[in-house]
Write a structure and sequence with these properties.
single chain; mainly alpha
Length: 88
């Protein structure tokens, strides 16, 4: 697994955790607030905002991965370490 893929996997794992934790932010009177695990649709704004932000972050990661892949195909080294810069 290359560095970019490893970093993306790390971030996706953190976002998975954040998504699981979103269930903790239902309103106290929400009927799904006491259900463990999956988040059902409800009117609570906080979990919905968390999940929406996670979706945006995943999209940003996908964009970064595509750009890195495109640059790697053009022969650019990523990440740009001191040793890789001195070679070019
Ligand atoms: Zn709720």
């Amino acid at each position: 697994m290359d560095t970019a893929t490893e970093l993306a996997s790390f971030v996706h794992a953190r976002l998975d955790e954040e998504g699981r934790d979103a269930v903790l932010f239902h309103e106290l009177d929400c009927p799904v607030s006491h259900t463990a695990g999956r988040i059902s649709r409800c009117g609570c704004h906080c979990p919905a905002r968390i999940l929406a932000r996670i979706a945006i972050h995943r999209e940003v990661i996908r964009g970064c991965q595509q750009r890195i892949k495109h640059e790697q195909e053009k022969g650019l080294c990523w990440p740009c370490t001191q040793s890789s810069r001195s070679r070019s």
